[in-house]
Amino acid sequence: MTAPELPTGVIDTRDMVVVHIYMRREFRLAPGLVRAVEDGDTRRAGTVCAHLEFLTTTLHHHHTGEDRLLWPKLLERVPEELAPIVHLMEAQHERVAAVLEGIERVRPQWRSSARPAERDELARLLDELYVSLSEHLDAEEERLLPIAARTVTMAEWLQLGEEGVKDNRKQDLPLILGMIQYEGDPEVVAEIVSHTPWLIRSFVPMLSRRAFRKHALAVHGTATP
């Protein structure tokens, strides 16, 4: 049996940061999108709800990958005094997941009715989600990523990204990359793409900016939200 590869240095975790940038932006804007929909406008509610479903699905896949592939490795390897930071990440994921459950309950109701009651409840839940998610992303970047950079191998880190890509629908990949490209460091984005499978690497970058522009115009009314 081959011994597992062990960390030998500090790895680059900036790819996680550029993903966080797009999540912060889109979840910050989400409550306002909902509140702007007029009573009974089910067509616009459908557009906004499809956008919300895309966001919450990608967030769920992102967190599931960390729950499955990152937290257990860190808890096995970090000194005991650092374990509470990992447990904080787990607890924050649980809080985010609880709010997401509420969003998933209200979102289809509002999509079909576009009534003010469901609209206001959905917007309230999205406000709550943004606060919890921002707190988590800040803590992850400031406290967890420096530990992860010294604790997991580059191969393990890349596996985390690969799992996130695999779990999303292939038709969503250009838009996901476009979301990241919009405000992400171009050097880091290029590095992310370089580690993707050949099929993705060959066609997704050509489509991603166009996909983001089309999506942003439909959802936000501007290509530069």
TrEMBL record:
Species name: Kribbella capetownensis
InterPro entries documented for this protein: Dimeric_xanthone_biosynth, Hemerythrin-like
Hemerythrin-like domain mapped to chain residues: 16-148
TM regions (residue ranges): none
Protein name: Hemerythrin domain-containing protein
Pfam families attached to this UniProt entry: Hemerythrin
Residue runs in coiled coils: none
